[in-house]
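[audit] Reproducing an earlier prediction to check determinism. Same input, same settings, fresh worker. If the tokens differ from the archived copy the diff job will pick it up downstream; this log only records the rerun itself.
[audit] input (362 residues):
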Amino acid sequence: MARHSPDQQGNTASNGDLQRPVKLACRNVWKVFGVGADEFISKYGGSASASDLTSANLIGAVRSADLEVRQGEIFIIMGLSGSGKSTLVRCMSRLIEPTYGKVEFEGKDLLSISTEELIELRRHRMGMVFQHFALLPHLSVLNNIAFPLSIQGMDREKREARAREMVDLVGLSGREHFYPRELSGGQQQRVGIARSLATNPEIWFLDEPFSALDPLIRREMQDELIRLQGVLKKTIVFITHDFDEAIRLADRIAIMKDGEIIQVGTPEQLVTNPATEYVAEFTRDVQRAKVMSARSLMQKPGRAKCAGTVSPDAKVSSFSAEIVSAGKPFAVVNGSGKPIGEVHPQAVIDLLAGIDRSTASP
């Protein structure tokens, strides 16, 4: 009897996930560019409209952003170029100063801490990876990875030992003494990832880290991120404009447009219940079987003998071939192995064929 667990590609957040503590949060965050931006947004109390901004010759790069990133999740912020996603992440790490609002790290407003506290937070608790690898060309792989530890003042023996651990973690053993120019693009990005992990950060910001890579290498690096997250369980804020990448990696996704967060949800929620026409268009070409779970298709248990079992969160793509081949239902079982519903082959066939038929859930 076939049995399927939740796959790794964008698992739907469970109730347990939603009980995890909030690691990082934005509360009505604004970033406005232009003369008099601070006075303007304070005057409006953080509720100015787009037309108000235009009338004042100001640009609202981020407007009234509210979100919560929970401990241990991969939270993806996505949107088209110019949507404000990179600006928002830089506000979240205070690489740029928000014009208005609060950015909370474990409940403490980062905008109220001193420069010294912020430096310590970045050195010891935050990691960052950007699209451009920014490796130091005169340093070897090992020394590039160890560089942030030298900034912390760690002695050479300890930082090199830690750097070697990171070399092994990202699969670069044997290349410790190579220089960046001697590495492929994917290998250089692995060095960037290893360097950002060397300080063992609690929260990890990745700003389109794979967008400059060739498609095959990009896929390889996505696999690597999934593997690393399985081992390290970091809290990750990841920026991309690629929805296929987002659904492959994300626990939850925030979609931005013109500086605003339009919708936050799991990949499945965004695809099956888009909040706006913009979100619907954004997700229109997504293969539903990659994001929809057994829970979405299940019906009440019947009397027919089931040919297999699946987890409620298992993506349809992970068991579609087997259930269609079997021609019989699969039981949907909870963590204790108790049947809570069943998925029928016809429902899977309809989904794969793009036929929209409502199914009753228990």
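[audit] rerun output stored. Observation attached for the diff report: The longest strand covers residues 22-33.
[audit] end
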